[in-house]
Design a protein that fits this description.
alpha/beta; about 40% helix; Aspartate Aminotransferase, domain 2; four-stranded mixed β-sheet; about 375 residues; about 15% strand; homodimer; 2 domains; Aspartate Aminotransferase, domain 1; seven-stranded mixed β-sheet
Chain lengths: ~375, ~375
């Protein structure tokens, strides 16, 4: 079998997606490609859970999608509130700074998340509505923390700021209801729960965000989303799209929506629970607080984390290490996309082997209790 | 068989490349991916023909590579000389404008190219060296015109401006000797003569350009090439690379370099000659002047061009139409990448059928004369 790739992206690919990558190239300005594009758009619309929003698929990593959101929705000089709980939140704030935004920060300790009440207070104090945009990270990949996105979005209340969400490691793995929760922009990437190789950034913009995007005057070229919308609001391709990745994403969306988004959400929830129980049975301390667990990545403190990861790779299991101030101090298990419970059990078993004879069976046994509680598809 | 895709990108894929796209995902921050990256870098080094240059592979369309060149090599406010002969040259100049450059233009009629003597004169007149960067288009895809790049680069003489080259539709199809000709930056894309799906921009920077890149202060985030070079000059990945496209590019470079770059150059030259003789035998007037022929795309005037293309598609042959001021007025045959002489003969035969009985055999017979003159691999 393939080695187990248990990192938070890129994630393993379903065979249907791998096969789709080999379809013949077509002219991207043609009816056959338009049909592919329309299927992808329709599928993403369901995943973003929006009827009014506009969807954009760009040839870029997720980071490119985050830059596109900034360039198109923030005028240089405007004030942005960065709600951050780890290195990916900080990175987005930094992109906003690079392109001229005044960044204010609402930060939590790593392992926790800023509370909706704190956000509501900050916005209530902003009586002059200087804050034009709020940056949220749905799932902080560096710590394995999930933000309660609905509560955070509702905490905006009557404040007119746009809400932008980095959902790169969350979309399709946990509920996100763009229209219902009043989110103005969601950014994701192809290579996580969307089970497609890296190389596509996907964005959805609310009607309000589209109006802002059309009005912003700051510099933007490659990521100018106006290039994707003709004046008559029809779709346009300003340059060559990543055709083979579109084929892959179409195949993946068919799988995800065929089984139902709820099934994907439940699968990720279950994998997260297995990871947590397994790691705790090995005596490891989780990075995330108990009310902050992520369904796609689980981080735990471990002395000699990087050497441990090297030994685990010797058994054919790849997990991730720490980033930023957690580098070398933690391990992170990605359980996102095309991953099943047996992959998780295999990962935990390999960790037992790596940690020594006295751990044999403990993590696996603990994780299996999750499967006893919840029927597995 | 697959339909014939005779457009200037995306181009058909060799079976080895299609197969490579299906390889399993790996952690991009790992030894296995580093090995892939190093093979790709080594192969591209040969294609760019540089020993000292630094090579960057970005998850982006070619346009993203053009933007990266501007953001990293042009300080806002600096003067750029845009040497343009069509819509892709104009597009690059526009990206420079968007990011704050003062753009001066040296333009030719469409179908021709600005002369090296004109460039030398413009630079000689710039005694204060206000011009910091010269933008050249190696092959203008909108008109099917090849710039005599060596002569243009040498026309710089002692002027200190950096020379940046858009080689998106030229690289690996026609000679480009970065070090020997003193070129400071070359930008290309994966989806043309590199025979890989679209989604990767490749750049090479001379040592001088790397020094400029490190010094520039203008805003750059996703395309900040400093993120790809650590301070100690080793390679870094600032975000997730497009893993599957790296696999494809590695496979394609192996094919191209295995047969030899000279073979690729000769094949494209021959395909261009076949296209020109075929189209002229059908009574069409070429867009490019006789001294300006491109080896990768051939454009010709044709009344009712777009309707003609639709009828051709009915026979399973896709060619491109006009762009910008040539929209609807010309056809363009792409003959770049994984295309062989029989594909070209089939295309010309389908055109004969579409144009009517009186043309039967004429274009094909004319094109075949090229094969009689030059041995076909």
């Amino acid at each position: 079998m393939d080695d187990l790739l248990m990192v938070p992206g890129p994630t393993p690919l379903p065979p249907e997606v791998r096969a789709a990558l080999t379809l013949p190239m077509v002219n991207h300005r043609s009816a056959p490609f338009r049909a592919v594009e329309e299927e992808v758009q329709a599928g993403l619309r369901q995943v973003f859970d929006t009827t009014a929003g506009r969807i954009f698929v760009l040839p870029a990593a997720g980071t490119g999608g985050l830059e596109a959101a900034i360039q198109n929705l923030v005028e240089p000089g405007q004030t942005v509130l960065s709600v951050t709980m780890g290195s990916f939140g900080d990175r987005w704030a930094n992109l906003a700074r690079v392109f001229g935004a005044q960044v204010e920060t609402l930060a939590s300790e790593w392992g926790s998340y800023p509370r909706p009440e704190e956000l509501a207070e900050r916005l209530a104090a902003d009586r002059e509505h200087r804050i034009r945009v709020i940056l949220l990270t749905h799932n902080e990949t560096s710590t394995g923390v999930l933000l309660p996105l609905e509560a955070m979005a509702r905490a905006r209340g009557d404040h007119p700021a746009l809400i932008l969400v980095d959902a790169v490691s969350a979309l399709a793995a946990t509920p996100l209801r763009m229209d219902e929760w009043g989110i103005d922009c969601v950014v994701a990437g192809s290579q996580k729960a969307l089970m497609t190789p890296p190389g596509l950034a996907v964005l959805a913009l609310s009607e309000r965000a589209v109006a802002t995007m059309r009005a912003v005057k700051g510099p933007r070229g490659y990521f100018d989303l106006r290039g994707y919308l003709k004046p008559d609001n029809t779709t346009n391709l300003p340059y060559t799209p990543a055709v083979s990745l579109f084929y892959g994403l179409r195949a993946s969306l068919k799988l995800i929506l065929g089984a139902g988004l709820e099934a994907s959400y439940a699968r990720h929830e279950r994998l997260g629970a297995m990871a947590r129980r397994g790691l705790e049975a090995l005596g490891l301390k989780l990075v995330a607080d108990p009310d902050a667990y992520s369904p796609t990545v689980t981080a735990a403190y471990l002395e000699g984390a990087d050497e441990f990861r090297t030994r685990l790779r010797g058994l054919g299991v790849t997990i991730a290490g720490g980033q930023g101030k957690l580098a070398g101090r933690i391990i992170r298990i990605g359980h996102v996309g095309f991953v099943n419970p047996v992959d998780m059990l295999g990962t935990l078993a390999a960790m037992e082997v790596t940690m020594g004879r006295e751990h044999a069976g403990h993590a696996v046994a603990a994780a299996e209790t999750v499967l006893e509680e919840v029927a597995v598809r």
